[in-house]
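User: Here's a protein and a ligand (orotidine-5'-monophosphate). What would the complex look like?
Assistant: Let me lay out the input and then the predicted complex.
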Amino acid sequence: ASQNIPQWKLDFVKAAIDGGILKFGSFELKSKRISPYFFNAGEFHRGPLINAVRDAFAHTIREAHAEGVFDFDVVFGPAYKGIPLAVMTVSKLAELNPVKYDYLSYSYDRKEAKDHGEGGSIVGASLKGKRVLVVDDVVTAGTAKREAVDKIRREGGEVVGIVVALDRKEKLPAADGDDSKPMPSAIGELRKEYGVPIIAILTVDDIIAGVKRLATEDDVKKIQEYQAKYRASD
Ligand code: OMP
């Protein structure tokens, strides 16, 4: 599979590493697991990185839409990290196909409901009676995605799919805390529980493949630099 990683995916991994979104080291996760890598979507704040993220989400969603995986009226980004993702996705889809995506809106939730002004907990398009596509950063145990789906349903929306930047492909924690047992994946359980397609732009396998390829790219660069310095003139 490492040979078949598409260019836009490789660009996304490269942008993530260059931009410090994908970090290597030792990180404690929400699940308390200590991970050798961490993907922080909050670091996508510079123009070139934003563009790589927009491209990756729009490319993935457009393809799934064209294949009939889902049909949607609103792109919903759960607070906080999903918010710019929803805006970027709608913006890029409208740029790619202004006629087809003219109708498309974004929407996001507040962490706390507002009791004055316009009130409510949803900002952007109303979810009532709408087909809603959720965009978010990372799935590890799936807890954040469950909260988003429940909220959308309470607002009268129909969740038609979830697209995330990264599926870490981790197993659910065992009830007795014994992590050596085989357990189903968090994303697989979410798919079953909600009966909606869940698409990950990257999986941990893509990250591993991308990192390997990028290391090779660095080797190529070193050879070229060596050649530039020592190449014979004839
Ligand atoms: P679940 O909702 O339990 O799947 O946890 C996913 C959340 O964990 C993400 O929305 C992040 O807040 C955080 N997270 C990352 O952002 N990047 C990672 O690589 C790993 C995690 C994590 O803590 O599992």
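Summary: The beta strands are 22-28, 34-39, 74-77, 105-114, 120-124, 131-139, 158-167, 198-203.
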